[in-house]
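Ops channel
N.P.: pipeline sanity check, posting one input/output pair.
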């Protein structure tokens, strides 16, 4: 990028400052204005955070970001007033700062995109601290939400930093919002199985498994005639946590297998029929 325009603007700023004849009183007033602005910004930031804590709306990050922006805005206003108090022509200053801001925006584009996405997440709060989620292929618990990323603590003991813009661009599955979720265990049955009896047996076994909720009730559907098996889906509801899903799925699989074994119903495995030349001749084929 051509830096000549930036240099020209900085020269204009220097020329606007050159004619100034500052006295100690003017400087003292300008400094006092800046100090007051900084104090007011800090007080405003604390007040907004206190209000957010008292309201307890479940989105503390929103108030924290609002507090920061308010503090920055008060600081900028204080700077402008201080410069005007010593007679600085703000036209070239504002133009120069605008050009510098443009260069900075281009250089910091990824950070600014993530920051803007972070603001959107804080306002809409599709996820909050402590929620268990699936985001951008990552499954775990929200450990932190920063200006740059959403931090996910996975069940594998890893901490993954997902950029905010990636979070907004992809589907977010919040496992903690619904209060419960459904899991499916697929079972392959032999072709000579009494399907009605097997379905009733699997539904009863799954409903009695530890962690399975009674409402909605367990459902069993036969959905496919495979190459070696007739496939059925056992669907059940449980608590929404990630570990809950694995724990209850394990319990259902064990209980369904035990019930089928006791009833003499086979969980089939892949089979292949091979015809030999002798068998073909004997069959008159």
């Amino acid at each position: 990028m051509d830096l000549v325009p930036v240099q020209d603007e900085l020269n204009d700023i220097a020329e606007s400052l050159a004619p100034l004849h500052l006295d100690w009183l003017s400087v003292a007033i300008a400094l006092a204005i800046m100090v007051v602005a900084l104090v007011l910004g800090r007080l405003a930031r604390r007040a907004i955070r206190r209000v957010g804590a008292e309201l307890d709306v479940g989105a503390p990050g929103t108030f924290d970001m609002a507090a920061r922006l308010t503090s920055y805005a008060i600081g900028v206003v204080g700077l402008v007033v201080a410069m005007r108090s010593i007679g600085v022509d703000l036209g070239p200053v504002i133009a120069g700062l605008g050009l510098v801001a443009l260069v900075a925006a281009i250089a910091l584009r990824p950070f600014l995109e993530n920051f803007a996405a972070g603001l959107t997440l804080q306002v809409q709060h599709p996820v909050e601290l402590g929620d268990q989620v699936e985001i951008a292929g990552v499954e775990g618990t929200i450990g932190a939400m920063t200006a740059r990323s959403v931090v996910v603590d996975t069940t594998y003991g890893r901490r993954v930093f997902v950029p905010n813009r990636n979070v907004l661009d992809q589907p977010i599955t919040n496992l903690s919002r619904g209060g419960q979720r459904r899991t499916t265990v697929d079972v392959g049955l032999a072709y000579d199985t009494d399907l009605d009896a097997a379905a009733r047996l699997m539904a009863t076994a799954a409903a009695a498994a530890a962690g399975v909720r009674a409402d909605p009730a367990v459902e069993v559907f036969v959905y496919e005639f495979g190459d070696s098996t007739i496939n059925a889906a056992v669907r059940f509801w449980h608590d929404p946590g990630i570990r809950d899903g694995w724990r209850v799925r394990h319990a259902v699989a064990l209980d369904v297998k035990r019930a089928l074994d006791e009833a003499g119903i086979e969980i089939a495995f892949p089979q292949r029929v091979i015809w030999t030349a002798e068998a073909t001749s004997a069959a008159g084929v």
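N.P.: looks fine end to end. Residues 62 and 123 are 6 Å apart (CA to CA).
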